[in-house]
Fold these 4 entries.
Entry 1:
Amino acid sequence: MAKRSQVMNQIPAIVNSQLRLLGENIQRARLRRNMTLNDLAMRVGVARTTLIRLEKGLPTASLGVLATTLWVLGLDSTLHELANPEKDEFGKFQERQYLRQKASGKKRAKLAKGASTILDEIEGLDY
């Protein structure tokens, strides 16, 4: 139990706020569909207490329960957009920087190899 508490204490406040908002949104969606916690729990295949934790935004709810709950509620259509690499502008920037550095490293290696070849030719000349 100590490990779980330690992990929960390390979650940034902004993440906890987002999880609470997500839980509230799930609860609102369930209520709009006139579903009880028991109804939704049965359709998701989990215990009622698991859904209570999810609706409270507690980080102990699993990703599988979240995804299945969204699916049951018909809210899963944009789930694949989470962490979409095409929308990761910072990641794409970092990737371009890495590729540039890698390419310039190859150019340096190629130039160094070319320079050593020229030096070998020069050394082979008789003056």
Entry 2:
Amino acid sequence: MSISCSKQAKGAAQKVNEQEKILIQRLKEADLTTKRFLKVGKPGCAIDEDKAAFEFEFQKHLYTPEELDSFPRWGILGCEFLVLIDSDDPRMYAELNRVLPNTFEVTSPRRGLPHKYLVVCYDSTGSQVPNKKLHLKGVTDEKGKLLDLGEVRADNHYLVAPGTVIRYIDKQTGQEKTGMYTITNNVPIARLEYRDFFNIIKPYIEEANGSIAQTITAEEMKEGVPEGSRHPKCLSYAGKLVWLGMDAETAYFHLKTWNETLCKPPLPDSELRRILKAVFGYSAEERGVTYQEALKGAEKKCLPIRLAENDKLLTEIHDDGKEISIDELREILDSTIKHDNESKLITFLDMLLNYTREDQQNIGYVAESSTGKSYIPLQLTPYFPKADVIELGRVNPTAFFHEWGISTTDPRDTREIEEEKKHKIIHVNLKQVILVFLDNPHAQLLQNLRPLLSHDREEIEVRNVDRSKTGSHRTNTYILHGFPTVIFCTANEKLDEQEKTRLTLLSPESTQEKLESAIILKIEKDSDREAYQKLLESDPKRKWLINRVLSIATAEIEEILIPIELRAQIFAKFKESHKNWMPRHQRDIGKLLALIKASALLNFKHREQTEKTITANLYDVENGFQLYSAVSESNELGLAPEIYREFLELKDDFLDPGLTLAEYQKKYYQKYHKLIGREKADNRIKQYLTVGLLQDNPDPNDRRKTRYMSEGVYVPENEQPTLDVNLPTIKPQDNFCTAHTPPPAYISKENKEAS
């Protein structure tokens, strides 16, 4: 017998009220707005209309719980960070339950399958998660088409809220039934980063389903987009405007002009305001500025002046195709990093490779305290999307894995016990993540990351023994996914040989010229921090480079090819300075190839491109050799560049009869005007002995003493070239680069006069 809609709701009023309280509590815990409810169904509705939106253009008619208190059936809208996932098949739900973190769930009475609630942050461009159909590989219809087994509802799509009673037809019996949407997993709503969420659901999204891309191109900014693509593209465009530092009203003016002129048909003005409010609120969160405060501040400055200030920025967004030379890149990076040319260029280019499939690099800054070893990477990370960078101080393995990992139930644990008591696996997604360790990482963490640093496998299982709350020992399983870009800074010069070969070793300079420039910059910065920051934010070249990095990050270039005709030249040039092969050269050549590829990626729009690959050219090979030659000798010896430079500057003092430790300390002070302690001096000498730059012999006059000398060992004829001078702009048609380090010469007692 049919039951009227109003009668059902009245009978369930108390339950609806309790369900509502729980849902509202969870939304508030997650810092989500509660004005996201809509009316579904209506009195006297047909069964198949019981879940339909009650009002036309329901997105414009959203309510708070208080405003819907008298209405029996509610829907909840996925928007503004709230992502709803609907499973239509038990297999789809089981798979999602395996890969997604434990989160708030509401079960549908008809299918008996839970809806999952998640909070997913916007991406670096301000883009919201789009609506997506979910599929399982191999689950198709009779025509071979993938079946829709679920859906991501995040962009103004809704689900029925808990506490709502509906009528439905039971598929098995064909009978009419009633049932309530019920909270079946009352836990906090899990929070994920945009990148992590998409990495998790990517295997279940059919790429050929006509879904809308979540990035906006320069052409779309100029030409507009058709119906069906307007909302996500408008959201992305708004994100770019706010990300570039525009105030709310100026960004709204540009967004409105673009929408009315080019979108077909234009979005309503209220929708533009809502989009901008959401994007600006997310962008301003770290600055502690609300949308309303920004609008109020904007009124103090007339609109024409603000538009004139920002017109140039919009032009720069559109003009993203310019090719940039290594010298021009160095000039941009000079804005905050004085000198240190080879270090900042190599670091920046290696960071660009983060967005390839498996060319990510590892960098180690090794230098004594107060030399600015962490300063360089910290000044480069602002050019990259915040979501892609993790900056850490000293951290142990357990803290790292738990902080950045997602816990799931181990499928191998088949015990019939409560779900929370089963063995867990923590998945840590490091794919295309830039990890910056500002202090020497915990030794165990570095050991755990070694297979990833050497790219042995893209997925590695790690087991650690931790203490439980009761004090007993337990084994935790962690699975590391993807290849990260790793940068770590340390004052510890005693690096393990395994780390030395996996890292490109760099050091900040400590020359008088560099220190003087750094002190002047420090005075400028600390004298008026606000003015200094505004100066950086208004720098058009920095903005241009930030946008170039964003273009690379969203271009989805997986592979950079080196053509056959260039490979032979690379081999010949590398062999010139490596007469005798060593095992570590297998990794050293990879560092050179990485710089060649990074040069191509920097100007990817000017390289031959097919699908997700680009091809490097002769210009990139020249750039790679020029940069690699500046650090090749020190890296191939396993020394930090600054330590090796000090040896080159003092090498003549080590000639026969050599120096004792005390004499070395004295020479060091005379050269650098700073003291070096006995322990540090002894460690420095040991490093030179280990790599064969020095040999130790008893002092012939006092055999209790040891003298260290460079006679009879390999010592380079010339010091390493530096990049303190402007680099020439090399064109592909120029001759092949010869700026490489010549092979070392053998220095002995007989030919020291000639040397």
Entry 3:
Amino acid sequence: MITSSSPKAPLSLRPGSELCSDRVALVVEDHDDTRLMMVWLLESWGYYVLEAENGQEAVQIARWARPEVILMDTGLPGIDGITATMRIREHLHESVRIIFISGYCESAFRARAITAGCDHYLTKPLDIAALAALLKNDASIKIEHGIRL
């Protein structure tokens, strides 16, 4: 499944602060409910969001769409998140930020993801404020009504 959503207006997290606008993101997640929540979240922050259910789709979409950021699950059918990240890095190098969002919290798995080329590693349940800070590159950002996935 390769789908895309329509652009949304940026969401102000605090009065006068925009997270982003006119940006493209790719969400790679095989669980529909989790993927849809991440899509909704990114759209509410002004991203145009593409979706992939597996690693092979992620590699294909990343090559032609060249998203600014990829939210990558680890346990995907077929090509896993580690392998997909390595293949994406072969073509896009440093031009895309890849953020792993994983249920694996072991340091060895985190090290494998970093070695494969991910820029950041977040664990589930997802800390929305931490994701927002990474996307904005501002560790001091606050979300008043935080949502956890």
Entry 4:
Amino acid sequence: MTLKHGGSSSLFSRSFFGEVGFSKKAQIHAQIFIYVVAIVLFSFIMLYGYNAIRGFKEKSEQINFIKFKTDLTSTIKRVAPDYGTLKREELFIGGVYQDVCFVQSYKQQENTAVILNGISTSPDYNALIEDSFQAGTDKNVFLITNTLQESFDVGPINMSGGYICAPVLNGKVKIQFGGRGDHAFISTY
């Protein structure tokens, strides 16, 4: 294999794909195929990213709920036995909730009429909370978005009128806890 000046070896004169090579038509089809594969791959990556971000957001909301529930329960358990204690807390709950509503659970049987009246005449009336109370569930805290979202029990609580809702502002709710020896008195501030 000798190279002449100005010439080329038969090895270098062939195209990369052999003697015949690709025609222009085949190259266009190959480019279209590559673009379609790239678009499909990009779409899968975007969909995966969207789902991952949505999953992170949902997990974050779950974590906020669990932290709020734990903080609220522990504050009530800490304040309730210490008669005369007054504690103001600003608890973080996240941005999805509008209100946190409390239903009296301390001496509930003796005050059923007062509690039902408090629920039904409240400007924050919610039929699901009333149904829950009448069904005798042990839930006394209700988290509200456009509807009832979550409910749980925090122990024996009392409040004026048997029912109170605290607005959630900037993801936080302001609650005042008063120790009464065997229960906690809840109010807003």
